[in-house]
Amino acid sequence: MQPAEGPRRRAVDGGVLNFLSVSQLKQFSLCPRRWYFVKVLRLPEPETKAQALGVEGHAQLEHYLRTGEDVLGDVARAGRHLLPAPGADLLVEESFGTPSPLSADGVPFIGHIDLINPRRLAEGVLRVTDHKFSSNVGRYAATPAQLVDANTEAGLQMVGYGVWAALSDARFPGVRVLELEHLYFQTRGARRAASVLASVSVEHVSREWTQKVVPMVRRMREVARATRTADAPPNFGACEKYGGCPFKAQCLSGERTMSLLNRFVPKLQSPDTAAQLPLSAPPQATAPEALGTCDRCGASLTSENTSKLRSGEVLHVSCPGAEVAAVLPPDAPAASPTIATEVAPKRRGRKPKALNAPVAAPRVEDQEPATSPPATPSPQGERLRLFVDCVPNMPAESLSEYVAKVAAQVSEAGGVADLRFAGAESTLGFGRWKGALSMAIRNAPPVPGAYAALGLAHSELLQLAVEALEPLCGPGDFVRGAR
């Protein structure tokens, strides 16, 4: 059960980890950020109906085992045959004591154990039991292997209990074997109970504690010192476990001490913006290699203003006399040799379609609307060039790296781990992150150069970036491949 914390001493105070419990270990392993909300920020956790049932059931079991008086309800009574006979020798709701013998990395542990049965201690065997109330015992019960593995949620608790018992040698002399038990009581449907039992040596639990729990406590120390929610790592895979995390809104929105625009627009519009987001240093100006002249306009052809078609023909991408609609995308891949070329067999009642029907040639969009601003060349004469779903015939950077950096900045400004999953309480919620990302990209475009945006259909971030950057490209500097 979750131990009560005294009003004067908190588990975490001023970033210092004062004490822990095995329940906190379980919570931290499930999601460090949730533990941060509860123990560092001290946000209250609402009691669920399942927790209320568990508290009531534990109270009934405690009274029965201490006094022998049958006050068990229907849920707890289903496991009465699995309980030891009540007696004064049983240790019920046993406290870890003060000072506690159990610690990790110098942090003491507090808590209570539901039941300790020392009736076989003369044989060197001690049974440690934790009562569990579950809606479905068959589905959610742990396995014996999990009870003795500190990498599991169940093992964290039971290994901790076992180490505490092993360290309490004055109370349990001669203990060599620990019987770690989860006693389950089903709260829904048919009333049933089940015992999951694992026997393990004292040396095993001590080794699990040293090798697995002590490093976890060190990580908990680091999270306890965090001053921002973003510094506490989340586990988004646990958001819906155990009825859902009550801190989902705070987790996704974060703390906002100023508006979103005030947080990232000035930063992105600062004079040294180009130094903040470059993927690489601007290329040095070099004389382009001459590839002859264009047959249509007579301009000199270089690697910077050409691209090779799949036919082998060199294309002057900015030629004013080119037939744009008939131009193939640069470096378009050859047709797959695995595509069937035979006509499909005829089918009754419908005319078969020819598999070799001509396909409309893709376009190269080398003309911009009249309202688009002209591209601004860099001091070295370099321009922003964008190749979408096609490979340019020149050195190019991946646009994905630049987009990832801007998205990370906008996410940080909005106080969320990932802007695409911003909650309703966030300034980036309800899809507002799309406008924020587009604005950030327009205010801080990548340094001039050639960029390739590949796999556009599979990345919403890339799609937004391309839409934002297209008006910033000059004539002939925006090339789109086949769709």
Automatic annotation (TrEMBL):
The UniProt annotation puts the region (Disordered) at 331-382
Output the superkingdom of the source species: Bacteria
Stated name of the protein = PD-(D/E)XK endonuclease-like domain-containing protein
Among Pfam families, the record links this protein to:
PDDEXK_1 (PF12705)
List, alphabetically, the InterPro entries matched.
Answer: PDDEXK-like_dom_sf, PDDEXK_AddAB-type
Highest classification ranks of the organism: Bacteria, Pseudomonadati, Myxococcota, Myxococcia, Myxococcales
* Residue stretches making up the PD-(D/E)XK endonuclease-like domain: 20-69, 95-251
Q: Which organism is it from?
A: Myxococcus llanfairpwllgwyngyllgogerychwyrndrobwllllantysiliogogogochensis
